[in-house]
Amino acid sequence: MTRPDPTDGFRRERHRGFALDVDALEEPADGFAQSVVRGLSDHPRWLHCRWLYDDRGSEIFERICEQPEYYQTRTEAALLAEHAAQIRRAAAAPTVVELGSGSSVKTRHLLRAWPGGRYVPVDISLGMLRQSCAALAAELPRLEVRGIAASYERAFPLLRELSPLVLVFLGSTIGNLNPQETADFLDRVSAALGPGDHFLIGIDLVKDVRTLEAAYNDRAGWSAAFTKNLFARMNRELGTRLDLDAIEHVAYYDGQLDRIEIFARFRREEVIELPDIGRRFRIARGEMILTEISRKFQVDEVAANAARFGFETVGVFSDPTRAFAVLLTRLRDRRPATAGRESSADAHLAAARTRTLELVEPLTDEQVTRQHRPIMSPIVWDLGHIANYEEIWSIRALDPAAPVTEDVDWIYDPVANPRPSRKHLPLPDRDGTLAYMHQVRTRVRRQLAQVNFDPSDPLLAHGYVYKMIAQHEAQHSETILQTIQLIEDLTYEPGRRVEPRRAAVSMDVEYAVIPAGPFVIGTDDRSFAYDNERPAHVVELGRYRIDLAPVTNGQYLAFMLDGGYRRRDLWTEAGWLWLKETGVGHPAQWVLGPDERWLERSFGRLAPLVFDRPVVHVSWYEAAAYARWAGKRLPTEAEWEKAAAWDLETRVARRYPWGDAPPSEDHANLDQRTFAPAAVGAYPRGRSYFGCHQMIGDVWEWTASDFAPYPGFVAFPYREYSEVHFGKGHKALRGGSWATRPVAVRNTFRNWDLPQRRQIFAGFRCAADG
Question: Model pTM?
Fold first, then answer.
């Protein structure tokens, strides 16, 4: 199994006395504007603290560090100077890597104890890095200096080749992260380091409020100038016209959260206009915008938190007043961070099976065994196929001596037996099929009790094969729901159902502007991802717009009322031919009531059409026609994924639109709970970096792209999942629906179907150039 090269996407610069690896994914020119939009679209509003540090902001911060009230810098520098030799002896590593190195002034105390070693400063500012590396190379000629110009997240994959090392994170910068961000950060650090590597963290300690608040409200006014400069930078770079005299600096200690909170308070109403990306924000008189947090810590708290991610404390160095501390930890074992991930195999399998059985329990034997439409299998075939797939890929793939039942394998082979022919197969009845499922699962559980998750075996590493089986069953449970939706004269009563959420925020803005530039599409993950999601690779896109939300029923009705199904100019040639052959005139589950009002049928129930929910059960042809009518187009797969996954500030892709945390009920409408899409704006916590709503859940979204392999695609573990479907006219869908289980959805997940299909829970959003 070939591992991806972590240096892909970097270019090497060689200078006198030092070298730099520079991230080729350079920050787009409008990255600042995008970040401002992101923060001001939230309530309460905030701005990311990284934008405080332009050239002028960095100069002001240096002045802050010189103020008598600001104890942090001089206290930490003194600790490093006093204990550098002790830290070197304890770590016994030749390499020092520093995150957010800046001018490396404090780090020099440490580096003087590292003669003949290697220093790898990591900083987002290429100019600052060149300057500091040149100074260090001249000052410490015996030190090998190799800088990395990138975000922390982009630099992390490069660290393994530098092990053994000490990773340094000074200035209590960890205090700028909230608790969830801290956990995500420590998880990334733990994953990037090797066993025995050390992590040195500077932490500002909890102390009396007067000392803390004075440090962020210095008498000379530099802290206030630092906050105001953020808005001066907006005027300089974004063309805003803010009156800086209307902005005041506010900093105070929140004792409940143990953190300093820094705000810009507006003395009078102001307007922030960003015409280039079509956004305008009114800031009310007295409104406060959060610009930075600085959490304060207890040493035991930080040590315990680090231990969750496999770090053991080696030493704690603190000043006599216990104002500040430097904590040296060692990565002993990453298993605390990954505990439950491999052992979760049984939980994933059990959850998938429970949901499958719940879905079919209300159905009669006849409904389970009959083929209701040629495009769908008899449900009993889906159930048997789930068991047969599990038998093949768990029991037989891992035990070559296990018996093979070729006749059963043939029945459940989806390639040998296309859907229309499956009603003619000698399928067992409901009881026989459920017994087969139970028998296979019993054998798999016995196997799980003894299995060794061998990291060198791609099927077993991270428990991949069991997660693949769980995803496969979850996908078929959604297919079963599609079939149930098509059963005539059935009012389906699921075992669980909650009402779809109403909008929590309004859709005042139509689209997000996605800046031009490269991003990384796909993934190299081998713990969950299917073969068609791999490998991760860089794609260059021009600037484009994409709708903030999927197209709603109300918007789609306007298309219909404007003659959308009668206008030849809106349809592709194949779409118009399909339209004439089928006579379709509305989405698959819409029904015109006797009072000329539209209703929607959902699992046998008729209810008035809810205008602010995403339209569902439309084909690719219908989606493309609507997009032309709206003066837009469907997004490509790459455009969809960049809008969903790319984070301009870290320059890495998120696993989900909101981040890497698994989906919760507050993030997305998933997991077969609502049996309908929720209103657009119902899940503001699930927005992507660019502010796009509901890119995961509610409805699958058609894209303009054909389903095709990525460059470097390798089929694994079998050709029939993806490869045999490439080039067969399928269109790619993204994002999952309300019927998708969380185990089978992520930003990189690729679904596909033929452009005429309408049984899937699919809708769409539109895009446009520029």
Answer: 0.91
The CA distance from 548 to 527, in Å, is 31
Residue 18 φ/ψ, nearest 5 degrees = -160, 165
Which of the four pLDDT bands, split at 50, 70 and 90, describes residue 1? very low
At residue 2, the pLDDT reads 47
- Residue 513: per-residue pLDDT: 95
In the CATH scheme, what is the code of domain 511-584+613-769? 3.90.1580.10
d(CA 15, CA 429): 74
Spatial separation of the C-alpha atoms in residues 108 and 170, rounded to whole Å: 12
Helix residue ranges per DSSP H, 140-178: 152-155
Distance of CA 64 to the CA centre of its chain: 36
CB 611 within 8 A of CB 554: yes
- From its phi and psi, is residue 171 left (phi > 0), alpha (psi between -120 and 50) or beta? left
Sign of CA dihedral 47, 50, 55, 56: positive
What angle do the packed helices 55-66 and 222-238 form, to 10 degrees?
Answer: 180
For residues 268-274, average pLDDT: 96
- Alpha-carbon distance of 191 to 80, in angstroms, equals 26
Residue 146 main-chain phi, psi, to 5 deg:
-135, 105
Architecture of the domain spanning 11-29+65-205+297-338 = 3-Layer(aba) Sandwich (3.40)
The first and second tokens of residue 509, run together, are: 């803005």
Per-residue pLDDT, averaged over 332-347, amounts to 67
* Percent of the chain at pLDDT exceeding 90: 87
CATH fold for domain 345-486: Four Helix Bundle (Hemerythrin (Met), subunit A) (1.20.120)
